[in-house]
Amino acid sequence: MRRPSLRLTLLPVLAAFGLALLAGCADTPEEFATDLPDDAYPLEDMLISLDDLPLAMENETTNTFDNGDWAQVFNVENLRAKLNQLEARGRINAAVREFSWNEPFTHLGGPALITVQSTLYADVEAAQDSMSLFCGTLVNERTATDVTEFWLDDIGDGVQGFLLGEQTAEIGRLVETVVCFRTGRIVHAVVQNGLDGTEDIALGVRIAKRMYENVRAVFADIEPPSES
Questions:
Q1: Integer Cα distance of 202 and 75 in angstroms
Q2: pLDDT tens by residue, 154-200
Q3: Helices (H), ranges, 61-198
Q4: Rounded distance, CA 136 to CA 90, Å?
């Protein structure tokens, strides 16, 4: 009687071992708290700082915007209508940080301005919906026609990337490179502003991934409110 080879005997064992390794290495989706009070989310802490930026930009400015403040930034004639729109979309508030140069005209070969923002929504569904509405960034949806989407690897609970162009009479076409991702009911965005030809998707992804790691650390430190 012919004895089975050692190779054939080991195959089932190795196959089972391989499946166990694959199961152990499978990515487990992270869960980001979505049921905390609105003021329990430290949005400003989720933003990266000037030291985390891959470019040696020189200035950092941080602001927070509730719906009333954000509606005014759009500089629309019907402020009440814009405010109602933001509230209907479930937007709560946002923290926004801008990075810039002291002498922007000496850096025309790259982004003139980089903005990062974290926007809190009333629930996960509202945050998901905002991803298809320019991720809650400062975009006039009625005039935004020069839009090109690009594919990205997963970041967080969802990711979106697009280029937004605008023709100006003074300096030609300007381009915004936007990479945004979602963690629970918070949407984060990285926006580069520059002249046509300076758009850098790889840079936007790099910054977004750094911001994602920062966001994860912040969520890990959030303590749920004690029950009274």
A1: 31
A2: 999 999 999 999 988 888 899 999 999 999 999 999 999 999 999 99
A3: 67-73, 79-88, 124-131
A4: 11
